[in-house]
Write a structure and sequence with these properties.
It is a single chain. By secondary structure, the chain is of the alpha+beta class. The chain folds into 2 domains: 2-170, no CATH class; 184-269, no CATH class. The chain has helices spanning 26-43, 60-68, 81-86, 88-100, 152-160, 165-176, 187-211, 222-230, 254-269, and strands at residues 2-6, 13-18, 50-53, 72-77, 108-116, 125-134, 137-145, 235-238, 243-246. Strand 3, helix 2 and strand 4 (72-77) form a beta-alpha-beta unit. Helix 6 (165-176) crosses helix 8 (222-230).
């Protein structure tokens, strides 16, 4: 099972490591995280780093390491009875509000935050609770964060839920570029195959970010780019100093291709 790490704003791939298909341990998480942080700090010593992850990564040792190295974090938190009791007043208030406006039928969403300390934690940390009451019932989600001042709604909806973009990045990596084809018998061989697929991701991301910006494919998924730009018929003419592609006059992507060629010429000139 690949362990994917992406830069959350640009979608650039940071790491893709093959690991056992089980919940990661704190040691496994930190083995990757330490190398990434060391490389980032070497290039940008003053940059603020925010670590976002699901509840599988909310390990006491991981949070302690992040806090010790000045790294902000927001991660999913597994529900339990203590958290339910801690936010019971807020949950009941949201359910009451939904019942009172039931004729409208719109879901009620509420946010709250409290300080909470699990037995395995070395200190109390801020936990944000997202409460949603609808016709399907009451849905509760928790995240634990190092941010103290930001509002609960902003932390959940903007900071934490922004992590959902990573699912699209994984989809590009796994589905569009077929990186799930790790069928070798040895782990080292499969890791190398994953490395090759990761190199393809870097190339496709650079193509989209640089040559397709401003076009209708500027935010397209990789499989769409492959179908519309890469898997089209053309005649190739070669010479000692050139490669010339001859496309049909009815090529539907000719405007995008001409725009990309213009951008590429500008990049080469600079």
């Amino acid at each position: 099972m690949p362990f994917h790490v992406y830069e959350g704003q640009s979608g650039k791939l940071i790491a893709s490591v093959l690991r056992s298909g089980k919940t990661p341990t704190a040691k496994e998480i930190l083995s990757v995280l330490k190398r990434i942080i060391r490389r980032v700090r070497a290039a940008w010593p003053e940059v603020e780093i925010v670590f976002r992850a699901d509840s599988h990564h909310t390990k006491p040792d991981v949070m302690e390491w992040l806090e010790a190295h000045g790294i902000e974090f927001i991660m999913g938190q597994t529900p339990n009875r203590r958290l339910a009791a801690l936010f019971e007043t807020h949950i009941r208030a949201a359910e009451k509000k939904y019942r009172e406006q039931r004729q409208v039928g719109r879901p009620v969403r509420a946010y709250a935050s409290q300080w909470y300390a699990a037995r395995s934690w070395n200190c109390a940390r801020r936990v944000v609770c997202r409460i949603q009451v609808s016709a399907q019932g009451t849905d509760i989600r928790y995240v634990v964060t190092s941010f103290r001042a930001a509002g609960a709604k902003y932390l959940y909806e903007t900071v934490y839920c922004g992590r959902g973009r990573m699912e699209l990045m994984i989809k590009d990596h796994k589905v569009a570029l077929r990186s799930d084809r790790t069928s070798c018998h040895r782990k080292e061989a499969n890791q190398f195959r994953l490395f090759i697929h990761s190199a393809a991701y870097v190339l496709m991301h650079a193509l989209r970010a640089n040559l397709l910006k401003g076009s209708e494919l500027a935010h397209a998924q990789f499989d769409t780019i492959c179908l519309r730009l890469l898997k089209i018929g053309a005649r190739l003419e070669t010479g000692r100093t050139f490669l010339r592609f001859h496309f049909p006059a009815a090529c539907p992507a000719q405007d995008i291709l001409m725009r990309a060629i213009g951008i590429l010429a500008t990049l080469n000139a600079t």
